[in-house]
Amino acid sequence: ADFDAKKKRKVAEIYQALNSDPIDVAVLRRMAISEGGLLTDEIRCKVWPKLLSVNTDDLPPLPGKELREDSKDYQQVLLDVRRSLRRFPPGMPDDQREVLQEELIDIILHVLKRNPQLHYYQGYHDIVVTFLLVVGDRLATALVEKLSTHHLRDFMDPTMDNTKHILNYLMPIIDQVNPEVHDFMQSAEVGTIFALSWLITWFGHVLSDFRHVVRLYDFFLACHPLMPIYFAAVIVLHREQEVLDCECDMASVHHLLSQIPQDLPYESLISKAGDLFVQFPPSELAKEAAQAAQAERTAASTFKDFELASVQQRPDTVLRQRFRERLRGEERLRGEERTKSILTKPRTNRFVRLAVMGLTVALGAAALAVVKSALEWAPKFELQIFP
Asked: Which residues cross the membrane (predicted)?
């Protein structure tokens, strides 16, 4: 009864935000992030366009079949869509699924034709099919086009350089929260390729339950484009014991991590990912992610970090500042070799964990940060802020 009452309140709040003039996008973002997300596909049809600043009164016409004759990507798209049977609801009649697969091909080719700067990648269809199943072909075409020129832009370059750069954020995030897991993964030389399909499909390719996929899409659509890599990090951190119990070699750790559990505590992980973004925003991790020149060209880097992140007092930052001051004193006293040995252990698990837990126990601060910043960058969608 309590759950139903909360759900009713949330639905009422969502429709109130949709019906206000102007539409209260900040509330819609908070609803998409907070527990349960947007609840139903009917609501998603109304809210997803608002999160992406898509005008539903001016949708593009459905593409014609001539697209297939002109497209250099048609054969690859066709192969990928034919292999996508498991992305459709189990038990769906074959003829219905085949119609949707044809629509899926058309949406992808339409977006690519209208945006020749975009390059198709395997896994893109996993994102497009999610939108098709939730909102239908016409609206999906508009939403996917906006998403492709913004959140997904870095995956659609001619090379994978920007995608690899985004993956480079994974280990610094893990290092901030759990240096032991980070060091173990570094010793195993596992790299980050196990998370590639998670990132470029927004987990659509690896999660079997469609409800979990759309719940994550609610979250990602309301957030910074780098949020999927923070979510990838919290999955690894959630599996801390499994990782540390694994054989410390590349093949074993890669095999473990690439097999994503299907029974993850999604609401808890979403909350933690939001908190970590607030505590360790991309600007603080950029140096560790390296490739600074490359970072300036990524779509994600053009978004302003959460406003709260710049003013949030972070206990671990204070600790590290004090530590650096102590280091400087020791350097004068004991010389360079002593400093090098201390630098290898800049913090303890306990302090960092306390900092993470102490920041917020629920999604409160992270949701507030998302909402505060969302209005700053959402209008820029129309200004073509990416090169």
From this structure: 190-207, 219-237, 351-371
Each domain of the chain, given as residue ranges in start order, spans 160-312
State in Å, rounded, how far the first CA of the chain is from the last one.
50
Q: Are the beta carbons of 300 and 166 closer than 8 angstroms?
A: yes
Burial 246-263 (b: 16+ CB within 10 A, else e): beeeeeebbebbeebeee
Q: What is the C-alpha separation between 87 and 213, in angstroms, rounded?
A: 10
> What's the chain's length in residues?
387
Sign of CA dihedral 282, 286, 289, 292: positive
Q: Which of 241, 271, 261 is nearest to 181 (CA)?
A: 241
d(CA 182, CA 83): 35
CATH no. for 160-312 = 1.10.472.80
Render pLDDT for 208-266 as a digit per residue (tens, 0 to 9): 899 999 999 999 999 999 999 999 999 999 999 999 999 999 999 999 999 999 899 99
